[in-house]
Amino acid sequence: MIEIIRTLNQFETFRNNLRPGTIGFVPTMGNLHKGHLSLVKESLRQNDNTIVSIFVNPKQFGPNEDFEKYPRTLGEDNKKLKDLYRDEEFRGRLLTIFAPEVPEEIFPSNFSTKITVGDLTNKLCGINRPGHFDGVTTVVYRLFSIVKPHKAYFGQKDYQQYLVCKKMIEDLRLNIQLVPMPTKRDEDGLAMSSRNQYLTGTDRELALVLPQTLEKLKETIKSNFWPESYGLALELAGESKKEGDWDYLEILDAKTLREPSERTHTVILAGALKLGHTRLIDNKLVEIRYAR
Ligand code: PAF
Q: How many whole angstroms from 151 Cα to the centroid of ligand 1?
């Protein structure tokens, strides 16, 4: 059986009495799909205890974003986790859900701290979503301080979020290992996201432009030597942006999210595409090749 804990007090009691062993943590906003479940499985494999948080964090949504309509599906999420947990492979492992009943469990009305990571947050999603990453790092720090995990599992679809949280951990010396996990995709290549369900039939088809464009950029970079490959990919990105409502389509150094330099080994191809009121993000990492 999986215990679901709905208040901070109860969680703290649970945490203080938790059996010895490693703790893996999977922070989520719920509406779990196969991407989330792959993180939970990895945590169950690697740790004695796994805690999944389900919390739609008000601080990371802008005033005109989808906080109110974000899908809240605790019953279904619980069922998906139960099904997964039944697997023999996880016998003896403990899985617990922390799903705060109200936002005030995490952010009481007098809460006034904000965690801001500099540099990495002022590009890509940080440009058109001001304050978003402060909201993410503030809640992730808060959850880390409650859960006190050894490892935390993050999906690479939100690559910038992963990098920003990694930097916060390094800067604040939190002694938590971040484990990045590969993006899960539908059969046609679209990255899994809770926001995919907002798409109408036509937009769902148009959304494929996002992974397909990233794939073409990846092929261009893989099949040419750097820096020619960079020039060709920039050209292709410029052409691709003419079709569709792109928030961004960028080729950046995967460590710094800055323009690639002579020290770059891997680039990130990152895109954000708007379809009606829905904005989807995706990325691919590519190692660059220099001519010898
Ligand atoms: O990726 C998410 O679902 C959220 O940004 C996270 C990490 C759970 C923080 O609210």
A: 15
Structure confidence at residue 292 (pLDDT): 79
- Do 53 and 32 meet the contact criterion of CB atoms below 8 Å apart? no
What residue's CA is closest to ligand 1, atom 6? Answer: 28
Using DSSP's 3-state secondary structure scheme, residue 52 falls into strand
Question: Which residues are catalytic, by number?
Answer: 36
| AA identity, residue 247 | D
Report the atom number in ligand 1 closest to the C-alpha of 165.
7
In a domain, 18, yes or no: yes
Which domain does 67 fall in, by range?
3-181
Would the pTM of this model clear 0.85, i.e. be above it? yes
Ligand 1 atom, smallest distance to 140 CA: 9
User: Are residues 174 and 253 located together in one domain of the fold?
Assistant: no
Q: How many domains does the chain have?
A: 2
